[in-house]
Amino acid sequence: MHQTKKGNKWYFGMKVHAGADAGSGYVHTITGTSANMHDVSETSKLLLEEDHIMYGDSGYLGAPERPEIKGDEVLSKIDFWFNKRPSSLKMADDFKGLNWDKKLERDKSSVRCKIEHAFLIVKKQMAYGKVSYRGIEKNMNRFNVLFASANLVMCSRAGRTQDFLRCMAQVCPFEGK
């Protein structure tokens, strides 16, 4: 784990990057890096082979040009939809019409926000806002359990508990039943 500076404030710790299904919002992949690593460096690890589109914030803007994505024939076919930096959206103050750039960015954010629900559950409901200073590997073991639990919470909220139980019965059938 490393320290990094954001603005005039120093932070010590790690980042957790997560990939989620756009339809259900369930987290399928998580990776952890030190705090001084850039988000775009983990993009190729968050993508699945069956993905067709990736939504991300402005921290992932250079992802399609990364050598690990350009060199992979499956990952290079994915459409990347990233939010622009807010400072790049310029509009005249006296304009009265609909700002199509902001509407497009809002539409991208509405799909991308599904991953934020899992982070909200982990941070607020499971009270894990700060990591322990034990190293990335031990913290990632905990995050794997926390995000799996967050998936269960989202599954329960959506009323899909019977689907989950059927899926679990196929994966690991209990001998006592």
Task: Outline the fold blueprint.
Elements: E1 2-6, E2 9-20, E3 27-34, H1 43-46, E4 53-56, H2 67-70, E5 79-82, H3 100-112, H4 114-125, H5 136-157, H6 161-171
Parallel strand pairs: 4-5
Antiparallel strand pairs: 1-2, 2-3
Q: Roughly what fraction of the amino acids lie in strands? A: 15-25%
Strand order of the largest sheet: 1-2-3
Q: Find the count of extended strands (DSSP E, 2+ residues).
A: 5
Find the structural class using helix and strand composition. Answer: alpha+beta
Uncertain parts: none
Task: Give the termini separation.
Answer: 45 Å
Succession of helices and strands: EEEHEHEHHHH
The rounded Rg comes to: 19 Å
Helix content: 25-40%
Q: Could you say which overall geometry the principal axes of the C-alpha atoms support?
A: globular
- Overall pLDDT level: 82
Main β sheet profile:
3 strands, antiparallel
What keyword list fits this structure?
3-stranded antiparallel β-sheet, single chain, alpha+beta, globular, 6 helices
Walk me through what this model shows.
The chain is an alpha+beta fold and 177 residues long. Helix 4 (114-125) packs across helix 5 (136-157). The strands form two sheets. The chain has a three-stranded antiparallel sheet with strand order 1-2-3, covered by helices on one side. A two-stranded parallel ribbon has the order 4-5. The longest helix is centred in the C-terminal third of the chain and has 22 residues, at 136-157. The protein has helices at 43-46, 67-70, 100-112, 114-125, 136-157, 161-171; strands at residues 2-6, 9-20, 27-34, 53-56, 79-82. The mean pLDDT is 82. The chain is built from six helices and five strands. A hairpin with a 2-residue loop joins strand 1 (2-6) and strand 2.
